[in-house]
Amino acid sequence: MSNAYLYPSERTAVDTLGQDLTNGLTAQDETLECFESARQIKMRCSMADFDVYPKLKEVAQKVIDGQGPDNLTIDDMPTEAQQELFFMIGARGVNAIIQTLLPEIHSADDVEAFASLSRMRHRLLEINSSSVHH
Question: What is the pTM of this model?
């Protein structure tokens, strides 16, 4: 498995999954909290190319509204669309996806997807905290 950056409530939820699902997962405390504001997300969304990826417009509006994206399957999106999505929704949106995914973890693959998203969120938080972003 791999590393995951977890807030305390996420660590509690992961601890309830059982060792058979989380074997090999290394949990680290997520200490960064430099999330984007709604204004910053709106600005990023205005820069996104929705003509190429129209589904992203719907996802963007849900993130702006503070909701998790419903029925979003990352595997169905081309890599370029994923990059556009993560830029657009930032750590705030990735966190919403994580919170939506967390109660639905039922397999080792789900745990790996969760860990991967936590690393993406952590990287975005690092970028946010090291820039004039905050």
Answer: 0.79
